[in-house]
């Protein structure tokens, strides 16, 4: 009954949010950004309790970590969301029928959005700011690894809502138990949409067990294809940035695919990776090309498990191909349809790659690390959708709205 009461309060809060004017929404978000910076030390102290219980070698450790730079970045994202136009009330289409009836398709909130996530406490801020701006109440189900961080963050958000006279149930943090996850996935009539953010296992569990609608934010198995017409300087910078900027996030590079005609340039492309002690799992041709130029202790022979793996650490694979088609075939087999890139100066090759690759984000001469809502001008993101219904790629404000038809006339009736 306690969880049902939470759901009921979230529904009521969502309805109330839809009636709040945009200036109040924006003022509240700006106040939250200010308080987030002011209370950075409090958040870091709570986060330290969670970090103390996790092994630093765990790939999730970096995702769990909050420091002042990251907190100030979070506050900046909240302000970005506040500065964006409201996604609500947009007329998506309008037509006047022969009988004079006017049919408008208008954007509206979903109502209540549930988000299930693992050791990423920043998600609480991102989800709330986007949901709040788009008129949705949100229910957060964080993992036990981030319990202290999540509780502190949600209480901070609630304090701002109370101060502004807004229903604090606009954000709800569920208990960090598996039982509460099951209740959220079965909250038919209360929760309009559930979005999982985390491992492949979490996403599969949510999809297979939910009775409410789900948008998958998939794992990121990302490739960069260095074409026979690729530029070495661009390729080296793109590979290094895609792999090492933040290894624990879903847009990090997992596999470099290189055309066999450019194997001689592989040492130059990979050189800087050694500064970050990146372990490379290379197939036989790439292994031979790197011997003597890349640290021996960081160089391993690839096997079948090296491909299709989301490493989430300072590791990556290399696959040698003899043609663009072979590269495409490798991507088709192993891609998670998240982010794929090509490095090439051949416009025809780039155009074919862009048409052929089935992924949410396809890059030409750009690092995969840009798959991020803020980098796309969306303010922040609630996840990267790898599916094709409703939303695909970074999910920002517009993706958190549905629509309804509004029909106006002057007494028309149907024969």
Task: Explain what you see.
The model has no long low-confidence stretch (mean pLDDT 94). The protein is built from 14 helices and 16 strands. Helix 6 links the parallel strand 3 and strand 4. The protein has helices at 2-17, 22-38, 40-51, 60-64, 68-83, 122-133, 147-163, 178-185, 200-209, 232-244, 266-270, 284-290, 324-334, 347-356; strands at 91-96, 102-109, 112-117, 137-141, 171-173, 193-197, 222-226, 253-259, 279-282, 299-301, 315-321, 339-343, 361-364, 384-385, 393-394, 401-408.
Q: Key features?
A:
415 residues; alpha/beta; 14 helices
String of helices and strands: HHHHHEEEHEHEHEHEHEHEHEEHEHEEEE
> Numbering strands along the chain, what is their spatial order in the largest sheet?
10-9-11-8-7-12-13
Task: Round the Cα radius of gyration to an integer and report it.
Answer: 23 Å
Shape: globular
Bin the helical content: 25-40%
Report the structural category: alpha/beta
Uncertain residue ranges: none
Please provide the count of β strands.
Answer: 16
Mean pLDDT: 94
- Give the helix tally: 14
Strand content: 15-25%
Main pleated-sheet profile: 7 strands, parallel
Distance between the termini: 49 Å
The gist of it:
With 415 residues, the protein is of the alpha/beta class. The protein is 38% helix and 19% strand.
């Amino acid at each position: 009954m306690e969880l049902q009461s939470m759901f009921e309060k979230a529904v009521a809060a969502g309805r109330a949010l839809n009636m709040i004017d945009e200036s109040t929404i924006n003022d509240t978000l700006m106040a939250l950004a200010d308080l987030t910076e002011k209370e950075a030390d409090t958040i870091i102290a709570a986060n330290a309790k969670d970090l103390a219980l996790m092994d630093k070698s765990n790939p999730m450790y970096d995702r769990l970590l909050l420091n002042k730079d990251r907190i100030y970045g979070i506050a900046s994202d909240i302000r970005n969301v506040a500065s964006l136009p409201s996604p609500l009330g947009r007329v998506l289409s309008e037509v006047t029928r022969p009988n004079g009836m006017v049919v408008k398709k208008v954007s509206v909130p979903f109502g209540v959005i549930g988000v299930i996530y693992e050791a990423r406490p920043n998600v609480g801020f991102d989800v709330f700011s986007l949901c709040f701006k788009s008129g949705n109440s949100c229910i957060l189900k964080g993992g036990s690894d981030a319990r202290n961080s999540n509780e502190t963050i949600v209480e901070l958000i609630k304090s701002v809502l109370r101060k502004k006279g807004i229903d604090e149930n606009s954000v709800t943090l569920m208990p960090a138990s598996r039982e509460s996850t099951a209740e959220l996935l079965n909250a038919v009539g209360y929760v309009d949409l559930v979005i999982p953010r985390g491992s492949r296992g979490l996403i599969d569990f949510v999809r297979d067990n939910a009775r409410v609608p789900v948008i998958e934010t998939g794992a990121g198995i990302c490739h960069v294809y260095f074409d026979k017409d690729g530029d070495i300087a661009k390729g080296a910078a793109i590979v290094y940035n895609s792999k090492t900027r933040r290894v624990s996030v879903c847009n990090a590079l997992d596999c470099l695919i290189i055309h066999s005609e450019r194997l001689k340039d592989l040492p130059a492309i990979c050189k800087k990776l050694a500064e970050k002690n990146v372990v490379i799992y290379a197939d036989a041709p790439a292994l031979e090309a790197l011997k003597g130029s890349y640290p021996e202790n960081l160089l391993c022979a690839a096997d079948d498990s090296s491909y299709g793996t989301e490493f989430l650490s300072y590791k990556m694979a290399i696959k040698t191909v003899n043609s663009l088609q072979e590269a495409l075939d490798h991507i088709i087999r192993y891609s998670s349809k998240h982010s794929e890139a090509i490095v090439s100066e051949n416009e025809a090759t780039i155009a074919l790659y862009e048409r052929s690759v089935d992924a949410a984000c396809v890059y030409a001469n750009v690092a995969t690390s840009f798959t991020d809502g803020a980098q796309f001008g969306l303010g922040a993101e609630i996840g990267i959708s790898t599916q094709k219904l409703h939303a695909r790629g970074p999910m920002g404000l517009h993706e958190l709205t549905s629509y309804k038809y509004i029909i106006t006339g002057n007494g028309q009736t149907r024969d």
